[in-house]
Amino acid sequence: MTDAASAPGTVRPGGRTARIRAAVLRAAEDALIECGFAGVDLAEIARRAEVGKTTVYRRWGTPQGLVADLLADMAEQSVRRTETGSLDGDLRANARLVVSTLTDPRQGVLFKAVICAATTDERTAQALHRFYATRIAEWAPCVDQAVQRGEAPHGTDAAEVIRAVSAPLYYRFLVSGDPLDATVADQVARTTARAAGTGAYVR
């Protein structure tokens, strides 16, 4: 049985191999955007990245392994949290970041492709869960700091507050098709901050 720490697509290459990883992940992004998960063929990815097929098969093993590594890289490259000094401001920054990502012509299509793949492939779903867990962990300290400032009561579930910001934005993105813009982001952040202040997210 393969150890999760050494599974294909989980190795973090450095030095001279970093460029290979970057080229392959970029090719995987392009394939997902153009064709969805069905377009992530390792031989085709190798051709796009101008890398030997053996290298791609050895390092990532399967399309699922490659997408898992792509999501890990996206988590690593994501914009770090903004600290404005208020819960409303921090959540507004978070919401605007989500909106800007989902409405980006390239990133929005990429996220839809990955989310679609995650509905039918367990390994991709697990990688997607890890991606969002990383992003929630990055922003949760903003809520903890708000508790320390007295803007929300002790016992507030920081992760749940961050989820509450993203959830309605993803609903618009994936389900309703309603507009996604800075105004919507600000409204969601303001509503969530007020709810947190009343103790709605106390464990």
UniProtKB/TrEMBL annotation:
<protein>
    <submittedName>
        <fullName>AcrR family transcriptional regulator</fullName>
    </submittedName>
</protein>
<dbReference type="Pfam" id="PF16859">
    <property type="entry name" value="TetR_C_11"/>
</dbReference>
<dbReference type="InterPro" id="IPR036271">
    <property type="entry name" value="Tet_transcr_reg_TetR-rel_C_sf"/>
</dbReference>
<dbReference type="InterPro" id="IPR009057">
    <property type="entry name" value="Homeodomain-like_sf"/>
</dbReference>
<keyword id="KW-0805">Transcription regulation</keyword>
<dbReference type="Pfam" id="PF00440">
    <property type="entry name" value="TetR_N"/>
</dbReference>
<dbReference type="GO" id="GO:0003700">
    <property type="term" value="F:DNA-binding transcription factor activity"/>
</dbReference>
<dbReference type="GO" id="GO:0000976">
    <property type="term" value="F:transcription cis-regulatory region binding"/>
</dbReference>
<dbReference type="InterPro" id="IPR011075">
    <property type="entry name" value="TetR_C"/>
</dbReference>
<keyword id="KW-0238">DNA-binding</keyword>
<dbReference type="InterPro" id="IPR001647">
    <property type="entry name" value="HTH_TetR"/>
</dbReference>
<dbReference type="InterPro" id="IPR050109">
    <property type="entry name" value="HTH-type_TetR-like_transc_reg"/>
</dbReference>
<keyword id="KW-0804">Transcription</keyword>
<feature type="DNA-binding region" description="H-T-H motif">
    <location>
        <begin position="41"/>
        <end position="60"/>
    </location>
</feature>
<feature type="domain" description="HTH tetR-type">
    <location>
        <begin position="18"/>
        <end position="78"/>
    </location>
</feature>
